Amino acid sequence: MSVLRSLESKIAGLVEGTFSRAFRSEVRPVEIARKLAREMEAHKAVSLSRTYVPNEYRVFLSARDRERFADYEAALADELAGYLLEYARRERLALVSRPVIEFETDDRLGLGEFGIQTGVVAPSQYFEQQPGDDQAGNTMIYADPGMAPVPREEPKRPRREKALLLIDGKRLVVGPAGVTVGRSRQCDIVLSDPNVSRRHAEIRPRGNDWVITDLGSTNGSLLNGRRIEGAELIGPGDEIELGTSLITFELE
């Protein structure tokens, strides 16, 4: 049995019963494991006799993704750490200590996105670090299992554009934190459309861009006629279809 399949079996044992409901978000534990191993490989440091890899990993999740399994993350972190330890042994990679996995919430991430940042404890005791090297790696953001990771870049300038949604001839301003759209009165923008779910979709800023994410709606969401999968970038003039409602996104 492969290491990853063994991890899947262990997680399956953990998530029986009520625990299984914790993972109905877009983020899946096994996908986190795959990306943790990728980040381990991407941050190797070679000494005279060994190849060292990070032993600290911070996993950033959206607020909703983390909320769904917050009560069980200690058990999940332990399984992921065991997976990385076994992976390192199999690939003959050196660790200065057992891997440590920590989960954090990042409100800039949408449902289904997660970030990973690596670090090494006391690297100078084990291999030479070049002047100016940073102990912590870039935070890598993953939005889709098939999407290549990209380093997170902090905004280099303040956001100047104001986002607007054009709905039935009305111009609705999107606040700096974004909006949720649906039939529920708890949403920021309420649509009286029976084909729209109570919490259908959300539009949020990400860096200097804007993204739209379907929130697990019954009928799905369309962006320019194409079904939305995960978090997708939107720009001026893009048309969003929620149920029978047509929304145009604009910036000014």
Characterize the structure shown.
It is a single chain. The chain is α+β, with helices and mostly antiparallel strands and 252 residues long. 20% of the residues lie in helices and 30% in strands. The protein is built from four helices and 18 strands. It has helices at residues 3-14, 29-42, 63-69, 73-90; strands spanning 45-46, 51-52, 56-61, 100-105, 114-119, 140-142, 150-151, 163-167, 170-174, 179-182, 189-190, 201-206, 209-214, 221-223, 226-227, 231-234, 239-242, 245-251. It has a six-stranded antiparallel sheet with strand order 9-8-18-17-14-15, with no helix packed on it. The protein has a five-stranded mixed sheet with strand order 4-3-5-6-7. Strand 6 (140-142) and strand 7 (150-151) form a beta hairpin. It is elongated, with a radius of gyration of 21 Å.
What is the general shape?
elongated
* CA-based gyration radius: 21 Å
Unreliable stretches (pLDDT < 50, length at least 5) are 13-25, 122-135, 154-159
Mean pLDDT: 77
Count of separate DSSP helical elements: 4
**N- to C-terminal distance:** 56 Å
Number of strands: 18
Please bin the fraction of helical residues: 10-25%
In what order do the strands lie side by side in the largest sheet? 9-8-18-17-14-15
- Approximate strand percentage: 25-35%
Structural class: alpha+beta
Q: Which H/E pattern describes the elements?
A: HHEEEHHEEEEEEEEEEEEEEE
